[in-house]
Amino acid sequence: MSANEATQGQATRAPKWNPLCWPLYLRVLLGVVLGTVIGISFPAVKQLDGSFKPREILLRWTTADLGSIASMYIDLLTALATPLIFFAVAEAFIRTVITARQGVKMFTICLVNIAVAFVIGLVILNTWQPGKAWSGAFAEYQQNAASSAEETADQKKLKLVTEQASKKSLSPLELVRSYIPKSFLQPFTDNMVLTVAVLAILVGAALRSLKAAADPELQAAVLTFDHLIIACYQIILKMLFWLIELAPYAICLAVIGVVGTSGLETFKLVGVFFLTTVTALSIHSLIYYPLSAWLIGGKSPAIYFREGASAILTGFSINSSLATAPLTLQALERMGVSDSSARLSACVGTNFNNDGITLYEAMTALFIAQVAGMDLSLGAQISILLAALAGSMGIAGIPNSGLIILTLVLRAANLSDETVKFAFPIVLSIDFIIARLRSAVNVMGDLQVAILLDAGGAAPEPAAPESAQSND
């Protein structure tokens, strides 16, 4: 306690003008602002084929090079976040009792969340019908495409993503098969997050079962293994917190790479599509999440956004809800959410609570269908929504995951190749910002699910007396 008071005293005496002493969310925000300013100052040069060539900043270093450095940081963060999920879930079984009732409650909350997201998307698209604003442009594209044989940079990107998507499927059997590892280590090397979480649940349940054995030697061995899991969790968590202190710098480099390469002028070209998507994501994340957390979970919007700001901003900046898991757990701890609910949501439920990606994929497919003049029935629209839901559950660890799953969803919507070729550049041109918004929404969803899991429930019980001794 005295150490914490000393730390708080040092923080109080620290000069407020020094950015290094600011809270993490303010440092992250500063990194975003500086990155945007530098990226705008060194805009990429547009080539004849429509692609952009990064501009040199200093000593032959370009904005793309800085973005590559940020990518390496994100890869390292993700590499540590996957074992964190394993040890966090396994350790939760050791320290507290995670019941089947909590699991059912979590899935119910996730289903309600996705149902609300679907309603928001359908209402916006069917009342506003924004895709019709592009009908004239689509007709013009069809005329120009027939006379142009040159392959643009966007079409090359589409071909690459289509090849990657051909290896994936929305079939339920194929989705289940994709989660079955060929070895115990494969889920960790391939970032198969859901499989890692399931393995952790099995290990934790097995440990709890073995504690009831009458063999003293076995009980001693299980206790030693308990201590090992607890130590591994704390070690990985400490390493991740060290890395997170570098997050504002990596975020600044990432924003420089994105803005410097793609620029901000694309928003002028795709304003209708961007506004449609952002409106839906904003209603779901800025109104539904905090309102439900307040009315059901008892956490006011002020607490929700103040304590969750670091996790939300980091998820937005580095475009990964998985790599943000340590900050999500930390934010939930500050909110007073129980440890078991926090880990169940941030480490297991995050695989099913992908509202951001699901809502985006579904709305994009329906928007493009409107562009093509397709009059889809409500049943057909719901089938596209379900295809997006199935795709969002299998995206962890897949490069270009958002675009790959979108390609599968567009195929499920029975859109023609000509329509996809027209719409793909629209999506690609602003994917760098939409992808980050999706990640931020997913982080906010993890916070909300954990809060609702705690609502109306009793405090978790200790798993065993031996585990309680290991806390010291």
From TrEMBL:
Which keywords belong to this entry?
Cell membrane, Membrane, Transmembrane, Transmembrane helix, Transport
A single cellular component GO annotation: plasma membrane
InterPro entries linked to this entry: Na-dicarboxylate_symporter, Na:dicarbo_symporter_sf
Q: Where in the cell is it found?
A: Cell membrane
Which Gene3D superfamilies does this UniProt record tie to the protein? Sodium:dicarboxylate symporter (1.10.3860.10)
**Topology in the membrane?**
Multi-pass membrane protein
Q: Where are the transmembrane segments?
A: 24-45, 80-98, 110-128, 192-210, 217-236, 242-262, 269-289, 384-410
Name the domain of life this protein comes from: Bacteria
User: Which terms does the record give in the GO molecular function aspect?
Assistant: symporter activity
Q: Does the keyword Transport apply?
A: yes
| Matching SUPFAM superfamilies | Proton glutamate symport protein
PANTHER family reported for this sequence: PROTON/GLUTAMATE-ASPARTATE SYMPORTER, PROTON_GLUTAMATE-ASPARTATE SYMPORTER
This chain belongs to the protein called C4-dicarboxylate transport protein
Q: Which organism is it from?
A: Anatilimnocola aggregata
Q: What is the lineage of its organism?
A: Bacteria, Pseudomonadati, Planctomycetota, Planctomycetia, Pirellulales
